[in-house]
Specification:
With about 300 residues, this protein is an alpha/beta fold. It is about 20% helix and about 25% strand. Helix 2 runs parallel beside helix 3. The longest helix has 23 residues. The N terminus is likely disordered.
Length: about 300
């Protein structure tokens, strides 16, 4: 009888032991996106009316990620076909060769022409560099330019194919890691890249979040959404700001696709995405420039 009772109690005993083992097991370390110590970040700005920011993330071993390699663009046919001048592309490549950088990845935050004008020039010279972007901004298989970024159809001669698509989640490239945030609204495939640099949170925001400013009665806080092809969505874009970007630490340093650097905390103060309808938008007071990266 004692043996029968103990056998009946065995499943319960096993469940208790398993629960205790799970409770006692160390928690799985939370993923913390990080750039290696002594990583440097540089910026090259296009000098035409786009004022687009191209960033270099350079690890201590020279391994490099380029984000959004734009170029100056000539209009060949109004609002239809553009030709990269290669002026900025040559500056980018000169910076790479002068500093003996090992460019392993080129990440596009979205598929608009002002963020990818130097792409073909660089890929022709650094064929081993992988091009990464979100699948939603890659041209579909039935397209003559299948596999290329969205705006390849308005670049004279097209561009090159994307090597790899990425989506929201954790992304590790060599010794560099990021949290990819999928933030459609400006572009259907827009992404932002969050990481930590020297223990400071930083965000490469593309055109999802720009430094808020006013000019001639027009206010800018994001990239456009009123595209003629209907790919922009203001309500969705502002929802992405509220749900994915404005929950980041307020001290997060933001490296946007155009214009000046900013922080999440500053943008939360003035963003129309957080303004109650009907409330006037206050123009922010001038602030000291945010330092931390080097312009080339």
């Amino acid at each position: 009888m004692p043996m029968i009772l103990s056998m009946r109690k065995l499943p319960l005993l096993l469940m208790i032991m398993l629960s205790l083992a799970v409770w006692a097991a160390p928690a799985k370390p939370k993923f913390k996106p990080t750039l290696p110590a002594k990583t440097k970040i540089y910026r090259i700005v296009t000098t035409d009316y786009f004022d687009e920011n191209c960033y270099f993330i350079v690890g201590p071993d020279g391994k490099t990620i380029i984000i959004d390699p734009g170029d100056e663009l000539e209009i060949i046919k109004l609002d239809s076909i553009f030709r990269p001048t290669e002026k900025v592309a040559r500056r980018i490549y000169q910076f790479i060769t002068d500093n003996k950088l090992d460019v392993q990845y080129i990440i596009l935050t979205h598929g608009h022409l002002d963020h990818l004008g130097s792409l073909k020039y660089l890929k022709d010279r650094i064929p081993g560099a992988q091009i990464l972007m979100h699948a939603a901004d890659v041209r579909k298989p039935d397209d003559p330019l299948a596999g290329q970024p969205k705006d390849a159809n308005i670049i004279e001669g097209g561009l090159v194919k994307v090597d790899r698509t990425i989506d929201e989640g954790n992304l590790t490239l060599g010794g560099m890691s990021f949290q990819v945030l999928f933030t459609p609204g400006h572009g259907v495939g827009s992404i932002c890249l969050f990481t930590n640099w020297d223990d400071k949170p930083v965000l490469f925001s593309g055109d999802t979040l720009l430094h808020f400013y006013g000019s001639n009665g027009i206010y800018y806080d994001t990239g456009r959404w009123n595209f003629r092809d209907g790919t922009g969505d203001k309500d969705l874009l502002y929802r992405m700001l509220r749900e994915k970007l404005f929950i980041l630490p307020e001290e997060t340093l933001v490296f946007p696709g155009h214009y000046d650097y900013t922080t999440i905390g500053l943008e939360k103060l003035y963003s129309p995405a957080l303004v109650v309808p009907g409330r006037p938008i206050d123009i922010p007071e001038p602030v000291e420039p945010v330092m931390g990266i080097e312009d080339e």
